[in-house]
Design a protein that fits this description.
With 81 residues, this protein is an alpha+beta fold. The protein has a single domain, classed as Alpha-Beta Plaits, CATH 3.30.70. A 4-stranded antiparallel β-sheet has the order 1-2-4-3.
Amino acid sequence: MAIIKHPLATEKSIRQIESENKLVFVVDSKAKKAEIKAELERILSTKVLTVNTFNGPDGEKRAYVRFATPAIDIATRLGLM
């Protein structure tokens, strides 16, 4: 089971990169916040400060992740910018 499915590149998520130092990821619907945090720290080799989750009406779960390092750098590495 893949916990992190893919990063989300919507207009709102791009604004959050710039204003709140957050990236948005689509995650497995059964994933817990601690699991999401551990997986992202392992994959991206950076410190995660907070993870907030949102269960959308379409059944898609999103994780709003705030990083200690600039999110714009991480987004560039992931090819979002």
